[in-house]
Amino acid sequence: MIVETDGYIELVQYLTGQLPLFSQNTGSATTANYTLRELVEEKLGENMMAVFEQNELDQETRLNIVREADAIMYDLEEVLSSVLDNHPTAEQEEFVTEFVGLVKNLLDQQLNQ
Known about the structure:
Largest sheet: none
Protein name: DUF3802 domain-containing protein
Organism: Idiomarina seosinensis
InterPro entries: Uncharacterised_A0KLC6 (IPR020979)
């Protein structure tokens, strides 16, 4: 669906360009009681559920979206592997929310074509 598109490739490039945001000495103090991995999983899950709720999808399309979410999570784990067990800063949370929202937008565009 989207992981093979130019838009998704550009999003991954955007993510890699933001890696300094995830360095340990960047941003505000960490106050989260959850890890970056948990944050990414939660936000990705929330956005995938929103896609399901906002669109009437057949079972095959739903399964394709779940597979896409797995592939996206795999990509995020690859890029952020060294920091996934850290507690996110407010800036990191904001970026993850924005990034996952952009992924949802790509899915919405694909479904509306």
